[in-house]
Each structure stands twice: as structure tokens, then as C-alpha cells.
Amino acid sequence: MATSGLMTAEELRAACEEAERHLDGSPERVEKIAEIAEFLQEVQEATAEKRESEAFQRRVWDDSPLYPLPKKVDRDLIKFLNDPKFRHQFCELIRAPLPEDRQKRFERLDDLMSKTNKLLEAVRLAKTTRAFAAFFPHDFTAVRSPGRRNWYKLLTGREGWDQNNDAKANRAVLDRLENAIGTVDRSDWNAVARRMLLPLVLLEQGESLEPGRASGVPASTSKPASGLPEQGAGKPELDLGRISEHFDSIRKAGRLIFDPEMVESLHLGLWAHERRHFAVLTGLSGTGKTQLAGEYAKALTGESNDRICTIAVQPGWHDPTPLLGYVNPLGENQYTKTAFLRFLIRAIENRSQPHVCILDEMNLSHPEQYLAPILSAMELAGGWIELHGGEEKAYGIPPIIPYPGNLVLIGTVNMDETTMGISDKVLDRAFTLEFWDVDVDQWPGWEYSPLDDRDKEKVKEILREIMKALRPARLHFGWRVIEEVVRFMEQRQSQNAGLPVEAALDRVLYAKVLPKLRGDDAPRVQRALDACKAALEERNLTGCSSKVDELIKDLKEIGSFRFWR
Fold this sequence. Notes:
Blueprint: H1 9-25, H2 27-45, H3 48-51, H4 54-62, H5 71-81, H6 84-93, H7 102-119, H8 125-135, H9 151-156, H10 166-181, H11 189-205, H12 240-252, H13 260-271, E1 277-283, H14 289-301, E2 308-312, H15 321-324, E3 326-327, E4 335-336, H16 339-349, E5 355-360, H17 367-370, H18 372-379, E6 384-386, E7 400-402, E8 407-414, H19 424-427, E9 431-435, H20 453-470, H21 479-494, H22 501-512, E10 518-520, H23 523-538, H24 542-558, E11 560-562
Parallel strand pairs: 1-8, 1-9, 2-5, 5-8
Antiparallel strand pairs: 3-4, 6-7, 10-11
């Protein structure tokens, strides 16, 4: 975003018109405007008695819909909100109306905020600013600390913003907007709420605010209908055609083949929402879910390593700290950063380019727990992610960061006794693709395998038969198992091992296929084991057939079976 120069009134007016169209076209924003309008009206119409109540003060200080703030600050304020003396003194301070004269009005606001912070026994500027915005909505925006934004000078034409004076920054931004597009009806709370949100939308338009555009129209008017972020100069257009070309090259190179419809579904599902680009790939282990996510990330980013991040989710992630980091309790003003947090900040700093994060085996822990701030922020336009409770960049990073609309999250999921279920909170926000169908003959490695043709056909035949037997009970296997079996047989051949072909197949199938067999009593499970045993016996694979026979007996006698006892 440009940080120098001053937008002309015409350029600012065009940017505001585009922002207004965005407000009208976003159901989330329309709902947000209504929520803020209702809140402002409630505050303004409250009686003196109600204003001094603990419930009302908590609503204003701790539960305001204007913008989120770190929870640690909320906890620090509890003792004041519980104190009738503080509530009375605060209400007495703000009781008198502000002067109509702009300069005197600002001076009065500045004095009131300073006195309020003294009552709080510490400077809590962001919290105080948000509370004052509820009582004096015509003098504030719904942006936390607008003066810290790069567009402050651009939008206002002013230098030297005082970082301890958010009221002054809000007033300067609103003055510039009123000069460009006029004032709002102060009795219309819906209109007041829209004006408070307008600077936030202008902020999200980012580089479209750059002055000097010939048309005076923000670049976002030409954004593709798919919702893809605009690409920077010299970058390829990352459209569906380019994605398809990348996967065609994979197929021609003899690597794992992905169904074109599956690839298209993933692409369309990720970009169907203007801001929430989240997919979950679930199904059979070893079917290429992680590889599909990785190849899609390469296609989307032009194989930019800086814009691809893979996180191996670990068991025991019960909160967001493994992803977002935490304040180090043993170090003064130290914040422990993570690879994901650094990646998130890069995405925020480069919003014109998509950034893809792959959460591998994301349900080894509960996603709704460690992803909670991410899931909440992606749901709301202008959503923020809370990191710590400091007022400023005390730990080297800001206390809250905006959710980047150019972030793509792709999670892979395996369902077994070692993993967690996926909650509706996650599924409602994600586009889900399931991977279960595996065709043995479609494995691309057959063409390049050095196996003798006769031995290769024997391997294919038994894998087909076992797959056919186990598939109806969902006990079958994926591409990884096929590859492992073939590699074992290739080693036997290349090293001239004395193990006969049938014996080698018996050993490798016992090692790679049978250990995954487990289940409970059901007709289709019984049929699957019987068919599998018949296929093994037909080819004289005695070790495997004996083991499956044991599993069948367990199923009949105790109602369940598993390879591991």
C-alpha cells in the first residue's frame, strides 16, 4: 500500500463508492452493521441508572461488537467494572454532551479519555477508545488504532500521528470522509454504523487506495468473480486453466494421477467464498491427500516456497499456542513465535498473493480447539486474531492481527482409533473432499516398474482381488500400500533373492495389508473376510490365508477382530 501522497477527493469518493458496494454485497457485513446499529442505539437510549449498572458496563467495555480486543485486558478490567464507585465516576465524566465546535469537541474528548485512564490506574488506550466509541459514535470508527495503519497519511494527508491519541486519528479519518462523501444522518443508527465500518473496508481494499490511478476507480472492481486475490506484476494468472496444466504435467511425468474433476472441485470449493478458503481432504490413508494439497499449493503459488507452509499437527494440541505462539512466562517481554505465525504475518504483508498452509493429519488433535481463533476470524468480514494482551508491540508482534483473505488452509484427515472426529464448527467452514476409491490398474508406477512382466501381472492380480474383496467393508488400502508391495518385489528381483514369487507376495501382503484389518460383526465385514481368504488360498498364499482365517474365527466367536491382539 502506498504510504505517501494524498488521494484526491475524486479518488477517495470512488474508493468509498466501491467500499459501499462491498458493504451492501456482503451478508456478513450487513449483519454486522445491524448488530452495531442495535448496540449504539441501546447505549444512547440507556437511562442514567442503567448506565451505572454492572451488566451495562460489561456490555460496553467487555462485549462491544465494534472490534475485538485481547481477553487479557478484559480480565484486568473486571475489578473496575465490579466497583460501583468506578462506574459512577465514569458515568459522571461522560454525562454532559460534547460541544458542537469541532476543536472544542476534540479537546473535551481527549480530556475525558485521559481522566478515564487515570480512573483505571493504567493506560488502556484501546479499551478506553472502544468504550468511548460506544458513547460518542459520531467521533470514532470501527477500526482499532487507525493511526497505526499505513493509509493514515494517505487518507488524511497528515503527518506525526500521536500513538497515544486514537481519538485524534479517528477524527481525522472521519473529517476526510465527510469532506469527500458528506455527513450521515445522526438519528439513523444504521447509517452511523455503516460510516463507522467504512474505513475498515477501505483498509481491506489495500492497494486500491493508491493515489494517481487514471480511472479513479479502485482496482478491486476488476477482481475476478472467483474471488482469487489479484496477482502482482510479473506473476502468472493462477486460474483454473493454470491449475489443470500443472496436474497434466504431473500425469505426463508418471507421478500419482489425480482425477481432473477432483482437482476442479478442490479449486472451486476453496474459492467459492470471498474470504474463507478452507478445505478438508478425508478418506483412506495413502490415497494421496497430502500430495494433492502440496501439488495444488505449488500450482496456485507458482511453486513459491515462501508462500507454502506445511504443518504436521501433533497429538495434544488443546489450544492455539502450537500454531499462534505464546507469551513466554519465563522471559520478560518475550513472545515465542511459531512457523505458522510467521507464515501468517507474511500473508498479511503480501495480500495480493495467495498463501497456502497444509495442516497434515489435522485431526490428531481436535481442530476446533487449536484452530479456534482462526475459525472465528475467517467467519467474519474484518475478523481479527488475538495473540497477546499487550497494548502495543511489547513482544515484537502486535496484540491482534487481521485475518488475511489470501490465506488458503487445506487439512488432511484420516479416520481411525488414533484420531479425533471433526466437529460441525470446522465442517461448516470447510469444503470437504473424500478419498476412498482406488483402482489398482491406475497406479502410475506400473509403467516404470522394472519387475518382470509375468511377476508384475501376478502382483496386479492379487492386489485387484484383495481390493475387490475388502472394498465393500471399507477395509481396502491406498496407493501407498501398492507402492510398498511393488518396491518389495523389485528388491527381491534386483538382489536375486531366493524367495519364490508366491512366498515373497505372502510375506509382503502379510506385512503391509493384513495389519490394517479390524472391525466388528456385520454381514458385509464377514463377506469381505471370506472373499479375501478365498483369493489368498487360490494363489497358495498360506501365511496370509491362515491369518485371515484366525480373524474370521475371532469375528464369529467374540463379535470383533483385529490383526493386533
